[in-house]
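Hi R.,

Here's the chain you asked about this morning:
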Amino acid sequence: MDVAVFAGVVSAGLFAMSYLPMLVKAARSKDLSSYSLGNLAITNAGNVLYSVYVFSLPIGPIWFLHGFYLVASALMLTWFLRYRRRWQRTDGQDLAEPIAAEQATRRSRLRPL
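And here is the predicted structure, written out as tokens:
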């Protein structure tokens, strides 16, 4: 394996690992109120379009990284649409703060082993 491919593999892994905490937090809390629907929609559209270029390249680290971004951004958009009713009332009032306060209270009740 040459240096460029090795660097690509390592950097793809690092970029993917940097996204994992965000995905785990979103999956656990179901609170994506700090995200914008517009941003998530444009990110997904850009990823789909960029796929035409990436998948025309020979198989390599970029395929893994872009595949990860495709899945991660699609998950975030899906979760945003699915869970927004949880933190947004019909009158438009944002409920993210009360939900965050409730989650903080639950965490404070947990005692370390």
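One quick note: Helices lie at 3-29, 37-54, 61-87, 96-109.

Cheers,
M.
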